[in-house]
Amino acid sequence: MLKYVPIATLILVLPVVSLVTAMRSPSQETTVQARPTVKQEKTPKKNVENEEVPVVKFETEATDKQKLTSSAHDKSISEMPEITDITESESWIERLPALPMEKSDAVIVGTVAKAEAHLSTGQTSVYSEYTIVVDEVFSDKTDLSLVSGSTFTAVREGGGVQFASGHIQVYRMSGQGFLKPNRKYVLFVKRAEETHRFLLLTGYQLRRDRVIPVDQVSGHAVYAGANVGEFLTIVRTAISNYGRGTNR
């Protein structure tokens, strides 16, 4: 798990991104009532083995890649040379169940083919975009015909921003991890309305026959180190039970 030693804690506005309604939260809320507190850290411990933060260059991001619009706020991304990690102190990820069946439009096993970071319009926030190759579909409530071998795009707030000096600042929600290219995951995703993209809710890496939670959330840690086969059985059973109304 990622653990950080906070060096400085300040009240700031963390840039936010909206992808229809879903990019801010998997719930049906359409507005955010309060600005989050974020902590800034000079030397966070990095989970290099199990995650890789996509990075975008601040000055050279092309406008045709700025696919999302940002919410109205009065702060923009700016370089802070002594700070490497900016983490929102509270986030919806921390409140998400370990197996979020109710909020998921699809549950799949897939491999990350590509990971990129992008800046929003106006360069006021950063988000990560993943191209996922589907290996197996456990559940699909969409009309997008997700099948083995197909691909889809999953997005999530957060990512790295590299400034002209070479300094990189990582923006993330509390508890948030990042996917790593060429790794296989069980992913819980929610479709963004009227698009073919998905919001990444959470996921679990399947590596060396062991399960590694993507997000550093206490409720998700129950599956850390679990046998992959046993975990997949648990997921299938949970989906089946939810479909019958057992967990509603």
Characteristic terms for this protein:
248 residues; mainly beta; OB fold (Dihydrolipoamide Acetyltransferase, E2P); 6-stranded mixed β-sheet; 5-stranded mixed barrel; 1 helix; globular; disordered N terminus
Can you describe what's shown?
With 248 residues, the protein is mainly beta. It has a single domain, classed as OB fold (Dihydrolipoamide Acetyltransferase, E2P). The protein has one helix and 14 strands. It has one helix at residues 228-243, and strands at residues 8-10, 17-18, 38-41, 55-57, 69-70, 85-88, 106-119, 126-140, 151-157, 159-162, 168-173, 184-191, 197-207, 210-213. Strands 1-3-6-11-10-4 form a six-stranded mixed beta sheet, with no helix packed on it. A hairpin with a 5-residue loop joins strand 12 and strand 13. It starts with 7 loop residues before the first strand and ends in a 5-residue tail after the last helix. The relative contact order is 0.20. Residues 1-24, 27-36 and 61-75 have low confidence and may be disordered.
The proportion of strand residues reads 35-45%
Q: What is the number of helices? A: 1
CATH architecture: Beta Barrel
How many domains would you count in the coordinates? 1
In short:
This protein is mainly beta. The chain has one helix and 14 strands; from the N terminus they run ββββββββββββββα.
